[in-house]
Amino acid sequence: MKKKLCIFLLTVFAVLPFFSSCGSVKDCDQIGEEFYDCLQNENYERVFSLLDNEALKYTPKEIWLDGFKYKKKNLGTMLRAQRIAFESITQDRVTRVGIKYKVIYAGADMFEKLEFIERDGDYKITFYQFNTDSLLVD
Questions:
Q1: SS percent in the chain: helix, strand, coil, step 5
Q2: Which of 105, 102, 107, 43 is nearest to 79 (CA)?
Q3: What would the pLDDT profile of 54-71 be if each residue is shown by its tens digit?
Q4: What is the helix (H) or strand (E) element at residue 122, kind and residue range?
Q5: Percent of the chain at pLDDT above 70?
Q6: Sign of CA dihedral 26, 69, 58, 130
Q7: Phi, psi at residue 84, to the nearest 5°?
Q8: Share of the chain above pLDDT 90, in %
Q9: Residue of 111, 102, 113, 105 lying closest to 72 (CA atoms)
């Protein structure tokens, strides 16, 4: 009986991180959907509210805004964004999540990655990367 209880407890503790990371990925994916909705509607102020202060510290708002406008001008209207992969890492009680998307624009297909960090129970975007080559977005 003790052996079965030990195996059960070990199984539960082995599976718990998986379930907690699934919740974080779901939360971040919802933020990612909002991010893309805001880009599509050119609601840049809302996009900035989804960004972590650390992201804005290293890349000022003006640079983010120039990049958004450059993409819209050169790639056209965004038609759809679809999650294609994710990763979740917790280290020193800080969870980081990366989600890759395939984003279809009127003028090109792009592979994009958003990275998120958990701060005080909320997730914020810390990094945004895009390229036409999926292997160059990691």
A1: 50, 35, 15
A2: 105
A3: 999 999 999 999 999 999
A4: strand 122-131
A5: 84
A6: positive
A7: -120, -20
A8: 71
A9: 105
| Distance between CA atoms of residues 123 and 46, nearest Å | 15
Structure tokens at 38: 């805001």
* Sequence-distant (≥ 6) Cβ neighbours of residue 125 within 8 angstroms: 31, 35, 50, 51, 52, 55, 114, 115, 116
Q: What is the pLDDT of residue 21?
A: 46
C-alpha to C-alpha distance for 126 and 54, rounded to whole angstroms: 7
For 19, phi then psi, to 5°, come to -65, -35
pLDDT score of 94: 87
- The number of beta carbons lying within 10 Å of the beta carbon of residue 52 is 18
